[in-house]
Amino acid sequence: SHDEMMKLYLKDKSSLFISNYEQIKTAKFNPKEIGYFGGDEFSCIRNLDTVVTNYMMNEFTVIPFRDIFTATPSPNDFTELLNYAHFLGIMDRGQALTRFFQRNSTKAGDLTLYPHKVQEFWLWVSSWAVFITKPSDLGYSDKGYEVPEMQVNWHEVVLKERDVISDRDGQTKLIRDGSASLQEAAKEKRESIIVRVDKVLDLLSKQPDKHCAIWHHLEEERKAIQKAIPDVKSVWGTQKMEEREQHLMDFAAGKFQYISTKPEIAGYGSNWQYHCDWEIFTGITYKFEEFIQAIHRVVRTYSNSRKVTIDIIHTDAEREIKRALLRKWNDYEEQQRQMTAIVKKYGLSAINIKADLKRSMGVERQEVKTDFYHCINNDNVIELSSWPDDSVHLQVTSIPFSDQYEYCESYHDFGHNDGDEAFFNQMDFTTPQMLRVLKPGRICAVHVKDRIRYSYQNGVGFTSLSDFSGKTVAHFEKHGFHLMGKITVTTDVVQENNQTYRLGWSEQCKDGTKMGVGLPEYILIFRKPPTDMTNGYADEPVTKKKEDYPVERWQLDAHSYWRSGGNRLLSQDEIMKYTLSQISKGWKEFSTSNIYDFEEHVGICHSLEALKKLPRTFMAVPVVSNSPFVWDDVTRMHTLNANQAVKGLEKHLCPLQFDIVDRLIIRYSSPGEVVLDPFGGLMTVPYRCIKLDRFGVGIELNEISYTDGAQYCSDATKKKRRNYII
After folding, report:
1. Residue pair 242/267 in contact by the 8 Å Cβ criterion
2. What does the pLDDT read at residue 587?
3. Extents of the domains making up the chain
4. If I label 425, which of 215, 268, 396, 575 is the partner at 20 to 30 A Cα–Cα?
5. What is the distance between the alpha carbons of residues 137 and 342, in angstroms, rounded to a whole number?
6. What is the pLDDT of residues 269-304, one digit of tens each?
7. Which candidate, 661, 621, 625, places its Cα nearest to that of 641?
């Protein structure tokens, strides 16, 4: 315990204490009284009690000197390295995620390195981590440290008879998928024990004199192995500690031929390479770390063999698990290659690495200007400071969402800030310039979205929201803009949950108090006061001819209630005849012509679910707006961001949709006027202005985005000149 540790320190002046991780839960160490922490096999803390892991990750950060050691720093994906960076105080995990990783908008937690950030990411890791695989990494001889060659053999066994299994809708499955769910994976494991153990016996019979380590994952597998192989010595969790230790040491000493155990029990630390160069995995799982650690019980230096054989058994229903395991193995080897190359280039010194990682200061201005658009690569603060007063008719922009994402490695980047306060401090330099260059009485439309605060960010154990839109309103009002209104752009709550796991139905049923609602996007409409305050008209008003916009049209557009034309709900037989696309279209027409009834809406969803027509990835019958100030018909696929994704280029966070931009431009400007986006991104605003006969200007700091956006505008101009419809 901590008290015992302090007594030893006071009595013997002992200053070095050794503990296993499990003891930390009960020992009650006071981290504030510890000067140095060294954690060996640190990656194993993910398998510990959550209380222990959280305690170490949160409380041990006060220890001034901290080292961690592991042979498998990121066995599942590269983002696991970020936990170490967080623990060591290098960089907050969230900040590192936004700097180096792109998210999959259709699957929560699926993060991959940006292709153009790969080298920078590994340089950054090398600035605080040392990866050494062999002496030659540092230019020394590998003599005496050679690792034997590894021969990997995959063996697929076929289970001829399986229990019939049905899906959630009662449909019988023709082919079993052992990766579809935990239940199916476990069922596949149990039903295939005999055929897999038979394969183990077959392999052993071909080399009867060799020693072999047999790995398994289930207790039923261990019992089957013991029954089939009388000479095997088994090690399991509830076995007496003395017996377990004796078996492990005796096998390492070559005193018996076969050992059977689980990777989580004996996969770490044991040295079996002197008398064993063969392993058989009775089955496979997704747990790559346990898998690779188990392999390295025999694939080690000082081996008496030049070649090690690894036999891996799986069933025909576990091919997807095999693919996932191979993908993780490839990532593991790629990590080794990247880090080895960096160590060979830079050595163990981080000085040169840090020099290569320095953020840029300043930007070399570039521009492309034509009769139709103007794209500028520059810091918008620097750029706008040279513009004349009252020179822009309309501003349409999507400001960065605080520090949620860094767009480039520059100190000028607005995403390079620590929290909302620092972000708006930087905006204090841009917003006054935006007000100054906007013509009096004209509109600045700002696209925003409130931010999710996960439990690891807010420290309260549940997900909450940050009122980013409200902070944006306060900021713009502080600088002289006046809020005219908020346009709500609805989002698909089912798609949002697929991206964030924030609004799950199962969690709602467990405890609805922890669940919020879907996050809409907002268009904040700000106005610069006109010069003449007597009537409120803009100095250069946006006018429309009455013959083009008659009063009857205006009255209908302005009214939020539409009378029913006699449409009714469809019967189940009628619904079955329609596709989801037709159902969604019919629902929207019905919703805009009838008074909304929540229970009726739930009833329709219930009927669709009963008919197996309620999707799990999008809303077939969403809440439909009957107000011109709430837009629910935005086509989210129509973005330049989608074009980027098709080309395999970098995807951007929450891009502006074409129809949002078009509506704002048409409503708040006239043909021939100047429309500015100070955060140009992929130049969506200038791109749409070309079609709508306005002159669009975009300012973008990121050179890659600027270049791509300018090309989009160039392509749009060529189409316009050929009189093609964009």
Report:
1. no
2. 66
3. 2-136, 149-346, 366-445+470-488+523-544+633-721
4. 396
5. 9
6. 789 999 999 999 999 998 888 899 899 999 988 777
7. 661
Would you state the pLDDT for residue 629? 52
> What backbone torsions phi and psi does residue 682 show, to the nearest 5 degrees?
-90, 15
Domain 366-445+470-488+523-544+633-721 has CATH 3.40.1550.10: no
Task: Write the DSSP assignment of 198-264 as a string of letters.
Answer: HHHHHHHHHSTTS-EEEE-SSHHHHHHHHHH-TT-EE--TTS-HHHHHHHHHHHHTTSSSEEEE-HH
Beta strands in 52-110 (DSSP E): 65-68, 101-103
CA–CA dist 164, 191 (Å, integer): 12
Is 688 in contact with 709 (CB distance < 8 Å)?
no
Q: How far apart are CA 159 and CA 242, in angstroms?
A: 38
What is the pTM assigned to this prediction?
0.53
Query: Is domain 149-346 given the CATH code 3.40.50.300 in the classification?
Result: yes
- What are 88-146's pLDDT values in tens digits? 888 777 667 767 777 655 454 566 777 767 777 888 888 888 878 888 887 888 888 88
∠ Cα 690 694 699 (to 5°): 75
User: Which residues have CB under 8 Å from 15's CB, separation 6+?
Assistant: 9
8-state DSSP, 360: B
**Contact by Cβ (8 Å): 271, 242:** no
Contact 73, 129 (CB under 8 A): yes
Quote the DSSP letter at residue 652: -
